[in-house]
């Protein structure tokens, strides 16, 4: 009888040693993404957070959110740049938390790969940790899963979940919005992490552009523009809420400006947003023109240059803009809240953008 070799996890494509090395490489970055309430370090079966810190709240409400970054991971993979995609992941999660006024406390991540390349996994975690620092929250744990046979060796995806806290009587939302309020638009850093299926279809499949193509409108390569990280607004929004009366925030993600802003507009009111108050960045115009994408389709897919919106009293607008300017965040009054007529949409976009839209 011939000698045979028994099956093993390694033979099935899972490299436990590579996973251990990835954990070793990421530890220094995770240590930087901490808060005083974090108990213990990396390596436990669960992340620990000292909830006694919540005693200072009269009625603390925990907020939770989970998200990924969609097909933007394909851009990172094709460019071989892995240390920015984590910023996108953090932004997509914590900026959903802050819309209700919640302070992000901690995050966990999930990285799924076809094959563990330790340096690549560590670079992804580095980006997540840096994003947590920018958001003021801790990275308390995560999971890296190797799925050979299901994913190609270079394929990967990321997801994350976050928890925040808000005082019950400070909860922001539609019930606070009043007629006469203004809508303050806060500039995005670009496409953020939504609409990349449309963007990739237009730029790669239809136009045949390469990632290393120099694009004069962008002042850099196509790949660099597409990989621009999502802006993380949580600390800016919290500063705004402390400095002035904010009634609601809206994170402009999948579905575009109108659909997301509508989520914080009461049934009897309407937000009227003036397109003429801003000019979307060049990437939005390029995608629209190359793909002959109708404006309505662009606006329901991409953020069109606005990553977050705040609804607040008109008399608070000047202070709000000043606070954001002091934090190097571009913002402007883009619209107002009115009584809604029968049959009217919750959000109406009116007028035309400036040159470049």
From TrEMBL:
Whether Cytoplasm counts among this entry's keywords is yes
> CDD domains, per this entry?
PurM
Listed GO MF terms: ATP binding; phosphoribosylamine-glycine ligase activity; phosphoribosylformylglycinamidine cyclo-ligase activity
Highest rank taxon of the organism: Bacteria
| Subcellular location(s) per record | Cytoplasm
Question: So, what pathway does this thing act in?
Answer: Purine metabolism; IMP biosynthesis via de novo pathway; 5-amino-1-(5-phospho-D-ribosyl)imidazole from N(2)-formyl-N(1)-(5-phospho-D-ribosyl)glycinamide: step 2/2
Family membership, please give it.
Belongs to the AIR synthase family.
Its name, as the record gives it, is Phosphoribosylformylglycinamidine cyclo-ligase
What is the scientific name of the source organism?
Actinacidiphila reveromycinica
């Amino acid at each position: 009888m011939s000698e045979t070799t028994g099956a093993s996890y390694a033979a099935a494509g899972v490299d436990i040693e590579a996973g251990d090395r990835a954990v070793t490489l990421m530890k220094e970055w995770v240590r930087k993404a901490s808060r005083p309430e974090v108990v213990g370090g990396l390596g436990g079966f669960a992340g620990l957070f000292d909830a006694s810190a919540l005693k200072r709240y009269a009625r603390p409400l925990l907020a939770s959110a989970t998200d990924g970054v969609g097909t933007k991971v394909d851009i990172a993979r094709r460019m071989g740049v892995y240390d920015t995609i984590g910023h996108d992941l953090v932004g997509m999660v914590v900026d959903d938390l802050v819309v209700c006024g919640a302070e992000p406390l901690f995050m966990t991540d999930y990285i799924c790969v076809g094959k563990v390349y330790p340096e690549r996994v560590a670079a992804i975690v580095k980006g997540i940790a840096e994003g947590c620092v920018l958001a003021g929250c801790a990275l308390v744990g995560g999971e890296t899963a190797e799925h050979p046979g299901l994913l190609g060796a270079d394929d990967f995806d990321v997801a994350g979940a976050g928890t925040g806290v808000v005082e019950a009587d400070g909860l922001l939302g539609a019930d606070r919005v009043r007629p006469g309020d203004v809508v303050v638009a806060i500039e995005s850093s670009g496409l953020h992490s939504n609409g990349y299926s449309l963007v990739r279809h237009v730029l790669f499949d239809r136009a045949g552009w390469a990632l290393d193509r120099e694009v004069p409108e962008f002042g850099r390569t196509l790949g660099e523009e597409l990989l621009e990280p999502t802006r993380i607004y949580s600390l800016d929004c919290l500063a705004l809420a402390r400095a002035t009366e904010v009634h609601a925030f809206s994170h402009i993600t999948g579905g575009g400006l109108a659909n997301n802003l509508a989520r914080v507009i009461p049934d009897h009111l309407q937000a009227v947003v003036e397109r003429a108050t801003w000019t979307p960045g060049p990437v939005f115009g390029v995608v629209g023109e190359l793909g002959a994408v109708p404006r309505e389709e662009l606006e329901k897919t991409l953020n069109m240059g606005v990553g977050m919106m705040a609804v607040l009293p008109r008399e608070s607008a000047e202070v709000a803009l000043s606070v954001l300017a002091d934090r190097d965040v571009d913002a402007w009054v883009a619209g107002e809240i009115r009584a809604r007529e029968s049959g009217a949409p919750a959000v109406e976009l009116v007028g035309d953008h400036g040159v470049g839209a």
